[in-house]
Write a sequence for this structure.
């Protein structure tokens, strides 16, 4: 398994969750990474991205100021801290490894995908 996402669950609106993604060193070391999500009946959308060094991050407007993406290049792990969760954040969340050292906002920019972890926010 190249990418393994975990940490999803059921949380009340206003609560927090922390997602984690364990990656193989081969696809993590020099690659940008991203989090995407897909709600029922909707297309997969970009949530957050981080470059290979971890000194550049980008967020979708809908999560800016609430979510924080981070990475640990020694442990080959990616994280998404989600605060002030809303019902509209309910989705399956996927971690992905970019084709290059910087993240992009489109799914075409990613080569490897985790299996997804479900986040459900109750209102």
């Amino acid at each position: 398994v190249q990418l393994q996402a975990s940490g999803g669950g059921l949380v009340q609106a206003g609560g927090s969750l922390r997602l984690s993604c364990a990656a193989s060193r081969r696809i993590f070391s020099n690659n940008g990474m991203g989090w995407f999500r897909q709600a029922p009946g909707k297309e997969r959308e970009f949530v957050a991205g981080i470059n290979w060094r971890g000194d550049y991050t980008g967020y979708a407007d809908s999560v800016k100021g609430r979510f924080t993406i981070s990475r640990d290049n020694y442990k080959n792990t990616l994280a998404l801290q989600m605060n002030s969760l809303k019902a509209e954040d309910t989705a399956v969340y996927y971690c992905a490894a970019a084709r290059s050292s910087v993240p992009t906002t489109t799914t075409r920019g990613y080569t490897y995908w985790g299996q997804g972890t479900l986040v459900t926010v109750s209102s």
In short: The chain has one helix and eleven strands. The helical segments are 25-28.
